[in-house]
Hints:
The protein has twelve helices and two strands, in the order αααααβαβαααααα. It is mainly alpha-helical.
Amino acid sequence: MGIVYLAGHPFLYPLLRARLLPSLLLSVFVFTNLFLWTYIPQAAFLAIFHGRRLAWVNAAFLVLGEGAAITALLFEAFFVDETLVDVFDATLIHQGCRDLVATSRMLDPEADDPAKELGKPSTSAVYSPFSLRQIIEFIIFLPLNFIPVAGTPLFLVMTGNRAGPLHHWRYFKLLGFTKKERNAYISERKLQYTWFGISALILQLIPVFSMLFLLTTAAGSALWVARLEETKRLKDDLETGPRYEDDPR
Length: 249
């Protein structure tokens, strides 16, 4: 959904241009070296447990997972988090959630498009926080790929379950949620967040384009927020009901 949205809304393109070349170069460097130096040794090791044919496939997923972790760590740490916030906020503005974004940054209502409306953040603006725990769990879960057939899907589910809610970290901050409120909100939508995390992870496993898909995921995350906000407004309208006023006549 985020891929289609980003491709169809040119106002987001300027937010991407400065990041595309570094992301492509970084991804090519990381994945080329991993496949060059680690793919065959890992396939040989997996062949002991999986057999030759399945080992080649699972070793590819293992290397892709390692590459995704390394590139995400490097790129989110040094290049892309500010851009993710801008993509997320611009998408929210375009979807009618300007008031939500305005709680955290200056906006220019006279600008030509949502991306140009974005001013400096008035509070800390982080799309997804650096999570040492998530990185450690990712490394711990990688050996799940050693399990024949079921290992790779299990790895995706376990990591997706953790990663999914982090894509709404910015949303939780805009709402001013406490940790308790955030956990309760996530628990009510556990399956949706797990599925979103799995989808995002699969896209990030695609060599070279992994960081581009990280940006499209931010757009998809904002579209989901827009739907949640619309549902909340409709629910509030139903609970409030139409205002009653006495007829003065």
